[in-house]
Amino acid sequence: MKSTIALSSIIFTVGILSIPMVWSDNDFRWEKIGNKSSALATTTNPVYKEECGSCHMAYPPGLLPAKSWNKLMSELEHHFEDNAELDVQTAQSISQYLLTNSAEQTHSRDAVKFFQSIESSQTPIRISDIPYFKHEHDEIPQRMVIKNPEVKSFSQCNACHAEAEQGYFNEHEVNIPGFGQWDD
Amino acid sequence: MTHSSQIKVWDPLVIFFHWSLVSAFVIAYITEDDFLTIHSWAGYLILALLVIRIIWGFIGSHYARFSHFVYSRENIMQFLKDTLHFRAKRYLGHNPAGGAMVILLIISLLITSVSGIFLLGAEENAGPIAHWFVQAEGFWGNALEEVHEFFANFTLFLVLIHIAGVIVESLIHKENLVSSMLTGFKPEKTK
Amino acid sequence: MKNTILLITLLSSFITGFAQAETSTVKNLLTVYSTQGATTADAQQGKLLWQKTFPGKGEFVDRSCTNCHTDDLTQTGKHIKTNKPIKPMSPSVNPQRLTSVKKINKWFKRNCKWTMGRECTAQEKADILVYIENESKF
Question: What's CA B66's distance to the chain center, in Å?
Fold first, then answer.
């Protein structure tokens, strides 16, 4: 190498930029920094996954604020025109998981944006009603979602976002069934 | 290693600055917002490097000073014309076009990194000025994103022209400019 | 003609009797239901209940077990709203069915209330249970 200075400056730069990878204050650092930094936490609670993923995808808790989760859990008998009742113990265990990981508790970029777009007077129970959600999906034509028999509704995140349950909604990894990859 | 009549043109700080900037820009460009933490750190590093270089441009070594390589518009245009006719004079430090490129790159990189800091605050509620954007409307985020993306790509565009210019100069005057930016040395005379 | 029908009925009940080998989960529940007022569990009645349509509110005006589970218990069903696939109900195809009392209780509560607007009676639950359990052997 013709120049120690040049070499050391490159090493220096790469060195400095690897600091955030090794020195970070949360458990999701590899997912967030080494992998996909916008990710919400992977839905890990097995009870939640089983009970709340039996009819639809188990939505990452970071997508709704605590007040919304509370409302949902108190209305399980009338859960979007279905009955999702649970026994008291299971319901409590799930509520605790949801409230500990709700939007205001999560520091991931997406969760913060979801939370901040909700007005303090509103308690949305549909994730797809949240202003930030609508903003992110406002360019998608009806024929690709609502009129698409393979998708039908914006509630079916994992129809187009393959790793939705792991919390990854990267805009470069959207594949709409019947239409292919979505180019933002 | 030193042949006869080799002149030390680029001082260690310039060499360090140049190659750190190259690495940091490449990393920033590749990581985008998929690896936001590394991307932001790369941006902060670039900003710090720019500040150092600008200061050095006023108090540094002879060839590093802006006063040495910033030429008038006529000079720059004349130089470019001469280059096209293969009769441009060879400069030890930055030639007029090269000098102009330095200035353009510094400006473009400054706008890119500063808009990046603002964008981080507006869209991600992160970084040193996040608190300015607590109540901000979505408009700012979108506008800043456009500015940041445009200047990032404009910088890349400048980089490509810069590389082309380095190649052209090296060929015309038969010297290895890349090697010179690595060692700091240039032969006193060429051709 | 009357004799033929009688013969066929006798034979079917005989065969059905043989076919009614119950798992312990189902046995436990049937015992519970009988203390709650159910008489002998009847798979035929269970089948009829399964296929019956009940009036509903909102988006789903005609409600039936078959909406999501289809009328063939060996087939994969589909949630009427979310399209999520529902594994077959028949233990002959899906051995995990009818192995958890907790699960059976949970789904009876939810789905009877959704379909019929009320909880199923002990008799209805007993009938449905044996219908599901023995479906493939019909």
Answer: 13
